[in-house]
């Protein structure tokens, strides 16, 4: 059996995007509300009964959220073009530094348009 523990968070941010369709509006600065979810997987510690303490996970997520919320994502170092794919990779790298092999999945969604990207181990 494998346990999966998740924590969701949201951030609101602006970006521009260079793409081959909807070229002009995509190059204009525009914003999205993003909902992200980090999932850890493994076995709980028999003494604590926890995979990790959710308060610990929430703390690391809040630090990450502050780097994304109300930001112009084009200016956030190490994201690259601010696509859902690159946001997943950015969040993955930040969380992997704390949870290594326990990190199982990162998802970023834009609820308003139904867009989502999942990055799995
Ligand atoms: N593979 C990806 N494709 C696109 C991404 C992405 O992250 N990964 N992102 C975008 C844009 O950020 C874009 O703003 C969404 O554009 P579009 O799909 O054209 O939809 P709307 O402009 O109608 O969406 P709004 O949320 O209303 O701006 C595009 N492609
Ligand atoms: Zn966009």
TrEMBL record:
Biological processes, Gene Ontology terms: tRNA queuosine(34) biosynthetic process
One Pfam family recorded for the sequence: PTPS
Cofactor names: Zn(2+)
Substrates-to-products reaction catalysed: 7,8-dihydroneopterin 3'-triphosphate + H2O = 6-carboxy-5,6,7,8-tetrahydropterin + triphosphate + acetaldehyde + 2 H(+)
SUPFAM superfamilies, sorted: Tetrahydrobiopterin biosynthesis enzymes-like
Cofactor-binding details, from the entry: Binds 1 zinc ion per subunit.
Gene Ontology MF terms: 6-carboxytetrahydropterin synthase activity; metal ion binding
EC number(s) reported in the record: 4.-.-.-
Signal sequence annotation: none
Family classification: Belongs to the PTPS family. QueD subfamily.
UniProt protein name: 6-carboxy-5,6,7,8-tetrahydropterin synthase
Species: Hydrogenophaga taeniospiralis CCUG 15921
């Amino acid at each position: 059996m494998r346990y999966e523990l998740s924590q969701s968070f949201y951030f609101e941010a602006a970006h521009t995007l260079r793409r081959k369709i909807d070229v002009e509006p995509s190059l204009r600065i525009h914003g999205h509300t993003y909902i992200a979810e980090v999932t850890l997987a493994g076995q709980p510690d028999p003494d604590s009964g926890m995979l990790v303490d959710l308060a610990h996970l929430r703390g690391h997520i809040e630090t990450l959220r502050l780097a994304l919320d109300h930001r112009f994502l084009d200016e956030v170092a190490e994201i690259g073009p601010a696509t859902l794919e690159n946001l997943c990779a950015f969040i993955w790298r930040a969380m992997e530094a704390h949870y290594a092999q326990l990190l199982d999945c990162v998802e970023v969604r834009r609820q308003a348009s139904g867009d989502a990207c999942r990055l799995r181990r």
